[in-house]
Amino acid sequence: MAQEGEIVRQIQGLDSDMQTLVYENYNKFIAATETIRKMRVDFRSMEDEMEQLASSMSSITTFSSQISDKLRTRRQDVARLSSAHSTLQKLQFVLELPNKLTESIQEGHPAQAVEDWLRAERALTHYKDMASFAGIQEDCEKIMEELK
Q1: What mean pLDDT comes out for the span 120-139?
Q2: Is this structure's pTM higher than 0.85?
Q3: 34, 77, 82, 148: least CB-packed within 10 angstroms?
Q4: How confident is the model over 47-98, as pLDDT tens digits?
Q5: Which of 73, 148, 62, 60 is nearest to 105 (CA)?
Q6: Once rounded to an integer, what is the mean pLDDT over residues 12-24?
Q7: Residue pair 133/126 in contact by the 8 Å Cβ criterion
């Protein structure tokens, strides 16, 4: 009988331990379930934000492409205008060359006159078939001949 009483006490102790373990695990299970539910809500929110971000990035890419296309034509126009401006500056230099040569020589700067002449001589030789350039070239050659 004493042994039977001991076994009953052990069974009751084990039963009590088992109830405690079940209760503790149940609380952990409930906490884990709540955590998973919160994670689901957070992930749904994050998915919505990611979709908005993807949509925003797509819009930005589209706008960037449109702006780039508009600027490309402007860049080409600016490049053409810059080239035309450079050509006009060179033409102006050539047109003013006889006066510049004369001024440089009169002011006592023959080296500047020679430098200007050398800078324009190749272009004048290249375009000597055009009457206006031929006249400028003749005037400049006369001025440079007097300098010698």
Answers
A1: 85
A2: no
A3: 148
A4: 989 999 999 999 999 999 999 888 888 888 899 999 999 989 988 988 899 9
A5: 148
A6: 87
A7: no
Note the Cα 123 to chain centre separation in Å: 39
CA distance 40 to 33: 11
d(CA 101, CA 145): 11
Instruction: Quote the tokens at residue 72.
Output: 């490309």
Q: Token pair of 71, please? A: 């600027």
Q: What percent of the chain has pLDDT over 90?
A: 33
The CA distance from 85 to 82, in Å, is 5
Work out the mean pLDDT of the chain and round it to a whole number. Answer: 89
Q: Read out DSSP for the chain?
A: -HHHHHHHHHHHHHHHHHHHHHHHHHHHHHHHHHHHHHHHHHHHHHHHHHHHHHHHHHHHHHHHHHHHHHHHHHHHHHHHHHHHHHHHHHHHHHHHHHHHHHHHHHTT-HHHHHHHHHHHHHHHHHTTTSHHHHHHHHHHHHHHHHH-
How far apart CA 52 and CA 67 sit, in angstroms, is 22
